[in-house]
């Protein structure tokens, strides 16, 4: 939810960049996780302690979200709560060094264009949204399976033969750091070559890298495998970061939260299946399967509309009237 709300507050020209910048916090978590594992599980601690420590940031996020994340002004307006939406817009103006009462003077009126924003899950499968929804679900399921599958493949490749519960934590930590590079590359590419080419290229190259890692796990040296695993995780990070941005931009306010949440739920299913597959195949068969899943994700991503430089929800070719207009619309754009 905070991701979608932030997307609504950002202007088209910088939306991709700033949505990607917050992915560094995801990356920080990915880097910290093997460190915590090394300090707990590796040193004789309980895996339960590891899970408890990993849950603490989640609890902090809940509190921070309730206190600091504003409600979506677009959603508030759609529900007739114009005064609350106007207050949030005025707060945004003030935070950006503008006089809120000059931009939104007393008597500013919100003009409603449609009556209600729907949020039913079944709406996603109506003819208007069905093709986009199913395509997004394939992409999300594919990238989640691939992302977590790649991470688990790295742990298998760098597992120690003499102890199946011990790993080369240095190698795993190094591959985690690749996500910093991945986000940086995504920031550079997303507004230059677009959302769709970035996703397609990243998932394609990610699949190739995982395939190579699996096929040469027993022949290649540690350094070579480190390079391949680093590249694999970097490409996975680039792809899924841009998919997050693209999804928020594709869906209109009418279904944005529901559609994005549903896609994320499908991704969880893909992630849930991943360990059952990864840990029950030999590496060569796993490499082939991962390559196939990556290619399916590539095909689905290539069929999504491009959202670069377009208003939220307008890239599908649908003329959607989900946005309510303030009497001084230009001022709203200036603030947001």
Explain this structure.
This protein has 14 helices and 4 strands. The chain has one domain (about 1-335): MFS general substrate transporter like domains (Growth Hormone, Chain: A, Up-down Bundle). Helix content is about 70%, strand content about 5%. A hairpin with a 2-residue loop joins β2 and β3. α3 (about 25-40) packs antiparallel against α4, α8 packs parallel to α10 and α8 (about 130-155) packs antiparallel against α11. The protein is globular, with a radius of gyration of 22 Å. By secondary structure, the chain is mostly helical. The strands form 2 sheets. It has a two-stranded antiparallel ribbon with strand order 1-4. Strands 2-3 form a two-stranded antiparallel ribbon.
Question: Could you give the topology of this structure?
Answer:
Blueprint: H1 2-9, H2 15-21, H3 23-40, H4 47-68, H5 73-78, H6 82-95, H7 100-103, E1 110-111, H8 130-157, E2 159-160, E3 163-167, H9 169-190, H10 195-215, H11 222-250, H12 256-278, H13 283-302, E4 325-326, H14 329-335
Antiparallel strand pairs: 1-4, 2-3
Helix pairs in contact: 2-9, 2-11, 3-4, 3-9, 8-10, 8-11, 8-12, 8-13, 9-11, 10-11, 10-13, 11-12
CATH hierarchy, class: Mainly Alpha
Compute the number of strand runs: 4
| Named CATH topology | Growth Hormone, Chain: A
- Report the sheet-strand fraction: under 5%
State the end-to-end distance. Answer: 18 Å
How confident overall, as mean pLDDT? 83
Q: Runs with pLDDT <50, length 5+?
A: 318-336
CATH superfamily: MFS general substrate transporter like domains
**Count of discrete structural domains:** 1
* Overall morphology: globular
CATH architecture: Up-down Bundle
What is the radius of gyration computed over CA atoms, rounded to a whole number of angstroms? 22 Å
Return the string of H and E elements.
Answer: HHHHHHHEHEEHHHHHEH
How helical, in percent, are the residues?
55-70%
Helix count from the secondary structure assignment: 14
């Amino acid at each position: 939810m905070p991701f979608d709300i932030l997307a609504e507050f950002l202007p088209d020209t910088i939306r991709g960049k700033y949505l990607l910048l917050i992915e560094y916090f995801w990356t920080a978590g990915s880097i910290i996780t093997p460190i915590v594992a090394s300090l707990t599980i590796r040193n004789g601690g309980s895996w339960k302690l590891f899970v408890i420590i990993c849950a603490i940031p989640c609890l902090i996020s809940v509190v921070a979200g309730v206190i600091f994340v504003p409600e979506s002004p677009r959603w508030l307006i759609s529900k007739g709560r114009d005064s609350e939406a106007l207050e949030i817009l005025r707060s945004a103006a003030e935070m950006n060094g503008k006089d809120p009462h000059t931009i939104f003077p007393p008597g500013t009126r919100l003009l409603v264009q449609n009556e209600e924003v729907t949020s039913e899950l079944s709406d996603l499968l109506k003819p208007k949204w069905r093709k986009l929804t199913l395509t997004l679900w394939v992409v999300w399921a594919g990238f989640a399976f691939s992302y977590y599958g790649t991470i688990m493949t790295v742990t298998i490749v760098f597992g120690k033969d003499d102890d199946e519960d011990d790993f080369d934590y240095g190698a795993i930590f190094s591959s985690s750091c690749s996500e910093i590079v991945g986000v940086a590359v995504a920031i550079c590419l997303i507004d230059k070559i677009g959302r769709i080419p970035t996703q397609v290229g990243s998932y394609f190259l990610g699949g190739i890298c995982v395939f190579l890692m699996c096929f040469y796990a027993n022949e290649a040296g540690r350094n070579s495998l480190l390079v391949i695993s680093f590249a694999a995780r970097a490409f996975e990070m680039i792809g899924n970061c841009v998919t997050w941005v693209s999804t928020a931009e594709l869906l209109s306010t009418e279904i944005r939260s529901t559609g994005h949440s549903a896609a994320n739920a499908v991704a969880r299913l893909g992630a849930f299946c991943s360990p059952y597959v990864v840990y029950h195949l030999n590496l060569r068969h796993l490499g082939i399967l991962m390559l196939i899943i990556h290619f399916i994700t590539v095909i689905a991503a290539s069929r999504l509309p491009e959202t670069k430089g377009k208003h939220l929800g307008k890239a599908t070719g649908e003329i959607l009237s989900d946005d309510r207009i303030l009497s001084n619309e230009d001022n709203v754009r200036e603030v947001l």
